[in-house]
Amino acid sequence: MNWISCKDQMPERFQEVIFYATHGLHRHDIMTGYNKDSIWYCTYMFYGNVGLINDIQVTHWIPLPDYPK
Asked: Domain limits of the chain?
């Protein structure tokens, strides 16, 4: 599965996905969350900076994988 550019397609409203976001100078994060009316909400951060994140720019997303069986 490949990352999807937000320029090409946005996830469904409230669909929880993994997303890649940039903010500040040379800062980036990979998180799970969802988009609601062009506002991204983070539910978990996998990689990145610790602390409050303001003014993020989400550039790519990917659907969550299926749960293990």
From this structure: 17-63
* Residues lower than pLDDT 50 in the chain: 52
Look at the pTM and tell me if it is higher than 0.90: no
- Write out the two tokens for 8: 């090409």
DSSP E strands: which ranges in 1-69?
4-5, 17-23, 27-36, 39-47, 57-63
| Nearest alpha-carbon partner for 34 in 51, 17, 58, 47 | 17
In angstroms, rounded to a whole number, what is the distance separating the alpha carbons of residues 69 and 47? 26
Confidence (pLDDT) at 28: 81
pLDDT at res. 6 = 95
